[in-house]
């Protein structure tokens, strides 16, 4: 899985949406796999957020990415998104607000 995860991350960093979607369909476990970076650990969703691309974030959420998963510094997806500037930053933050509200209503139901 290490090679497949590295290829997924490479596609995310290259903003290759179709390749990302294809890889996630082929190997559903990639969406929750932990990726080692120079500064700690992260996951595909965190890397996609840092690319400031709503399309990539949406693809990962559709594949079942956990918005509550934290990186090695304790940052969850929303924390990372709040640090973005320009690009799709506000749309990404709004997406997480909707996802969080949906998750909270499921728990309360």
Question: Can you put this structure into words, describing what you see?
Answer:
This protein has 6 helices and 2 strands; from the N terminus they run ααββαααα. The chain starts with a helix and ends with a helix. Mean pLDDT is 86; it is low at 104-109. It has one domain: Serine Threonine Protein Phosphatase 5, Tetratricopeptide repeat (Alpha Horseshoe), CATH 1.25.40.20. Helix content is 59%, strand content 6%. A two-stranded antiparallel sheet has the order 1-2. With 109 residues, the chain is mainly alpha-helical.
List the topology elements:
Layout: H1 2-13, H2 17-26, E1 34-36, E2 41-43, H3 44-50, H4 54-62, H5 77-82, H6 89-108
Antiparallel strand pairs: 1-2
Helix pairs in contact: 1-2, 2-4, 3-4
CATH top-level class? Mainly Alpha
Question: In which range does the helix fraction lie?
Answer: 55-70%
Number of self-contained structural domains: 1
What is the name of the CATH architecture? Alpha Horseshoe
Whole-number radius of gyration?
A: 13 Å
Task: Write down the secondary-structure element order.
Answer: HHEEHHHH
CATH superfamily: Ankyrin repeat-containing domain
Give unreliable regions as ranges.
Answer: 104-109
Which descriptor suits the 3D outline? Answer: globular
Distance between the termini: 36 Å
CATH fold-level name: Serine Threonine Protein Phosphatase 5, Tetratricopeptide repeat
* Binned strand content: 5-15%
């Amino acid at each position: 899985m290490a090679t497949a995860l590295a290829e997924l991350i490479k596609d995310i960093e290259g903003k290759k949406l179709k390749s990302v979607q294809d890889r996630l369909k082929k190997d559903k476990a990639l969406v929750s796999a932990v990726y080692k970076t120079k500064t700690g650990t992260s996951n595909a969703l965190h890397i996609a957020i840092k690319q400031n691309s709503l399309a990539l974030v949406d693809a990962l959420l559709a594949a079942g990415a956990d918005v509550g998963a934290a990186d090695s510094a304790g940052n969850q997806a929303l924390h990372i998104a709040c640090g973005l500037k320009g690009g799709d930053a506000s749309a990404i933050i709004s997406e997480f607000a909707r996802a969080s509200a949906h998750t909270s209503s499921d728990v309360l139901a």
